[in-house]
Structure formats: structure tokens, C-alpha cells
Amino acid sequence: MADSTTSTGSPGSRILGLTTLLGLAGLLLFAFALTEPDVRLHPTTGEEFGQFDAVRLLYLHVPMAVLTYVAFLTCAVASAGYLLKRGAWWDVTAHASAEVGTVFCGLVLVTGSIWGKPVWNTWWEWGDVRLMTTLVLFLLFTGYLALRRTPAEPQRQARRAAVVALVAVLDIPLINRSVEWWENRTLHQQSTLAELKIEDLTLFTLMLGFVVFGLVFAWLMLHRFRVGWLEQAQADRDMALAIAERHAEMETLDVDAAIGRTGGGK
Amino acid sequence: MGEPVDEESGEAGPLDLTPQASRLRRRAGRPLSTVFLLAVVAAVVFVLLRTLGDASLFFYEVDEAVSARAELGTERFRVVGTPQPGLVESHLDGQAVVVFTLCVADVLADVAHLGDPAELFQPGVPVVLQGSWVSGDPPGIENLSAAADDGWYLRTDHMVVKHDNDYRGDAAELESCGVGS
Predict the structure, then answer these.
(1) CA distance A125 to A2
(2) CB A261 to CB B14 under 8 A?
(3) Which of A24, A144, B72, B118 is the most buried (most CB within 10 A)?
């Protein structure tokens, strides 16, 4: 695994990064300038109603939520792969996707809260089952990352983390299905895409959001994976160096004295 | 370089070749990450307890709240329903209230909500209110065209809007309930 690479960048990742930046700029243009606010005319009162400009957060919040699922599911698959194959590639992938997923999940909570204030009339609602299960997911993976920082023998730490990831990911179906299973315990709406209650530029911009945040995810994963791989390579190199130093040390010792404790090697 | 020394006995002993992490680093790293891990576990427990505790409040539909009125008594609960056209601004016990009627499955309940309604409050857009049943008529009920007027009303002080999943602009359909549905 020894690797002399010192950078996580490559021509391919730079092209991906540039495409991602352009995509983000395009998404912001569509989300905040080209799409219309959600304004409807009330059939009875004739007044305007809807979500107005707050609806624009749809194009950020929903794709980030989906990419959170993707990241944590990637982590779970890689964790299962590690438990089965015990390869460093699986462990590094699991760690990288957990970190990226936690960032996305945090952003989902923040953008959801910002969206909730004008639309729901509250920043936060204790008891909303989707909010709470999402917060629990965030905390579980924050705990996963903390666990990876606790001092332990690397293989044992990787095994523990893999088990935690496989348990934590069980929260995802609860989050996703909560609006159907506990309709009266959430302010969250039911699926818009499943019922096709979105069309034209609004639909296009939402799809663009999925693509762009998919690129953001890929770019972050690529770099975080490479950082993890380099860390592993460095750790292996340090280990090999330490062993070589010990062997060199041994060669300078009076071996008989070291084994039999009878000598006084100097 | 001298012979390796057993740390506990202070005597020379066999050489352990297993590479070990620095002791200094272990001592420095353990408390911070362990405390953080414990804090995360405590936060998860807090959220679960808070959620389970609050879940009992989440939430009756208007028809359920009306049929369970005797059991609910003065208990505080959450209720979801669709506001009917018509809103009266009034005062109750010296406080500003808005009075309107909620509907689910053609069952109506009158509401006196303390304070301003939510910014996106509109007839046909479901709201979740928090409060309790009160016997009597809310002030200004005579000005509502489609009131339940059954001798009870919901006195509430917390309102959130439960928006729909329709993003088709004017093609979107409103919840229909009660009069005119």
C-alpha cells in the first residue's frame, strides 16, 4: 500500500471539481432567479398564498437529503464489505462516506430549519417524526466519527465502526417512510415526485439539484477517500519503519543477553 | 544502547518488538474523544426521550378531537385541520385572538387562537394547533359564516402550517372540507 503520492488532486478530479462549480452556479441561477416563487390565487378569498420565495430551498434541501441517504448507504455497504473482506479499501470508503454524509445531513437540518420558519411558522418542532429521526441519524454518524477517533488498534476500531454504521443506517428507511407511516406525526409533506405534483421548470431545477449535489458528493468522496488512503499508507509506512528500526536495534544488541537476561550488553 | 528494561520491575527483560502507539498520544487523545462520544450518546438519548414524550401530543384530526372531547377534558393536545373561509379578530381575557373554524372529514370545530395566525395561514391550507377544549362560545363567533357553534371551542396558542406537496402553482389543488366542499 506504500504510496509516494502527496496530493489528492488529479486531472480527472480537477475536471470534476470545475464541472461541480459550474453546476452549482447554474443551480443557484435556476433556483434563485429563473424559477418562479410558489404563489397561487386562493379560489375562495382571491388572495395570494403558497410558499412564496421560501420554496426555492426545495432545490437545495431535497437533493441534499437524498445525497445524505446515498452517502450513509455507501458507508453501510462499505462497512459490510469490510466485515466480509477485511480490506483497507472498504474501511477507507466507509469512513469517507460517513464524513461526507454527516456534512450533508447537517446541512439538511440547517436548510430544513431555515425553510420551516417561513413556511411552517417554526424553526424546529420536537415530536415531528421525520425531523427527529433525521436528527438521530446525524447524531449516530457523529458518534460513528467520534468512535473512529478513539484510540484503539486499527482493525478493532474499523470493525466497531462498521457495526455501528450497519446499525445506524437502519434509521434511513424510518426517515424515508415516516411521512407515510406516521402521517399525523409530521409536518413534512408526502412525496411530491411519487405523485408527480411538480412540473416544468420547477421539476427541471429539482432534477438539476440532484445532478449537481451528486457531483458535489462524488468530488468530496474522491478527495476524502484519497486523504484516507494516504493516511493509511502513511500509517503503514510508519509501522514498517518502526519495525525496521526495532530490527536494526536488535542487531546492535547482544542477542544472547537480551534473550537470557544473563548478559550486560552495552 | 543498553538492554531493554522491564518498566514495572525495573529489571532487564525480553525485548518486545511490537510497535506501540506513543503513550503520550494515548493519554492526550482518550479523554477528549471519549467525552465527545459520551456526549453524542447522551444527545441521542435526550432526543429519543424528548420525541417519545412529545409524541403523545402529535396530533388529533379535528373529527378525532371532537369525538374524544370528553376524554381529553382540559388536557393540552395538538389538532390538525383545514381552516374554513372567514377569520374574526377579537379579544379573549384581555388578549388578542383570531377566531375561525377548522374542518376534517366535514366535522367542524371552532378555534380561538391567541396571538397572530401563522404568516402563511389561509383557508384550505391545513394547520396544526396546540391547545385545549374550552366550554362556551369564542368571541365573535356570530360573524363566522360556517362555525361549528356547538358550545365548545379550542383555545390554542401555537400554530404551525402543514403545507401540501403540490408544486404546480395554480394547478395545485386545495384541501376541500366542510361548507362548499
Answers:
(1) 50
(2) yes
(3) A144
